[in-house]
Amino acid sequence: MKIAVFAGDGIGPEVTEQAVRVLQALGLPGLELVEGDVGGMAYRKHGHPLPPETLETARASDAILFGAVGDFDCDNLERHLRPEQAILGLRKELGLFANLRPAKVFAGLEDFSALRPEVAGAIDLLIVRELNGDVYFGDKGIETLPDGTRRGWDMMSYSEAEVRRIAHAGFRAARTRGGKLCSVDKANVLETSQVWRDTVIAVAADYPDVELSHMYVDNAAMQLVRSPGSFDVIVTGNLFGDILSDQASMCVGSIGLLASASLAEGSFGLYEPIHGSAPDIAGKGLANPMATILSAAMLLRHSLGLEEQAARIEAAVASALTDGVRGGDLGGSHGTAAIGQAVLERL
Length: 347
Ligand code: IPM
Ligand code: MG
Prior knowledge:
The chain is α/β, with parallel strands linked by helices. The chain has helices at residues 12-25, 40-46, 52-59, 84-93, 117-120, 160-176, 191-204, 217-226, 238-252, 290-302, 307-322, 336-346; strands spanning 2-8, 32-35, 63-68, 98-104, 124-130, 140-144, 150-154, 180-185, 211-216, 233-236, 259-263, 269-273.
C-alpha cells in the first residue's frame, strides 16, 4: 500500500502532517508514504508546478493524499506554470474524472451553518462533479482585437462518452445512499447541457431503482440554500460542481470540514480537502486539519478498501467535534496540532 503525499502550498503542509499522523497511528502493515512536490513550492524548486518526478511518484502509488496548491506570488506567471496546474494536471494525467464531495452537518454544529439550524441539520448530500472536461480543459485563449482591446475565450464541451461515465458514477453513488440523483445542468441555454441531459436520461435506463431528477444550475444554487435536505446525490459538470460544492460547504458550517475524493476508473484516487491553500493563515498553526483527516479516511475506503479504519477515523473526528474541539473556522481556539492530537486520542 503506497500512498503519495503531496502537501503543496500554504496550509497544505500543516494539515497534511496531521492526516499523516492519523494514518500512521492505524499501524497498517505494509503502508508506505512517499512525498512529492506540487504547486508553487514545486515551481520554486523545479521550475514547474507538477514536475515529472511528482507525476512518476503518483503513477507508482495506490492513492494520493493531497494538501492544497495556490500562492499569490505565482499569480502573474504564465497560466501553465501557476500552482493550480498541479491539481488540474494530476486530474487530467491520471484520469481522475469523478470527484465526490460529501456535505453533511456534524451533530452539534448546526449553529455554524450560514443557514438556519433546522435547515442545516437536514443536510446529507453528495456532489459528484466531473473533473476531466468542460470549460476547464477546452480550447482557451486571449487575443488582442484590431482596436487594441482584448477578448478571452474558454470553450465548454462535453461528449456523450464523458457524460456517460460520470452519470454512471452518480447513479452508483445514489444506489449506496438515498436512491435519489439530481442532474444539474443549464439545458435551457447551453448545447453542452443538452447533450449532458439527454445522455444522463439514457444512462438512467440501467438504474430503474434510482429516482432521477433534473435541475438548472441557477435553480440548484437556490434550492441548495432553500431546502438542502431535499438533495441526496447531485451529479454535475466541472464548472457547476466547483461552484456548488463551495456553496454546499458553507451550508454545512465550515469549509474546514469537507473532504473529497477524485477517482479514476478502478480504485486509484486522489484525496484532498476542498479548501484551498489559505495563504492568510499559512504557517501559523491555525488551520483546521479535519477536512484533510477526513480525506485520508476516504482514501482508506475508496482506494484501499479499508472501510473499518475509514469509519474509525470519521468517528474520531465526530467525537472530537462533539467534545468541543473547534478550530478558528468554527469560532474555537484549537490549533492545527491540537486538533490532530484530539483526533488521535479518540482514535
Ligand atoms: C477545487 C478548486 C480547483 C478547481 C482549483 C484550485 C483549480 O477550486 O478543487 O474546487 O477549480 O477545481
Ligand atoms: Mg473549487
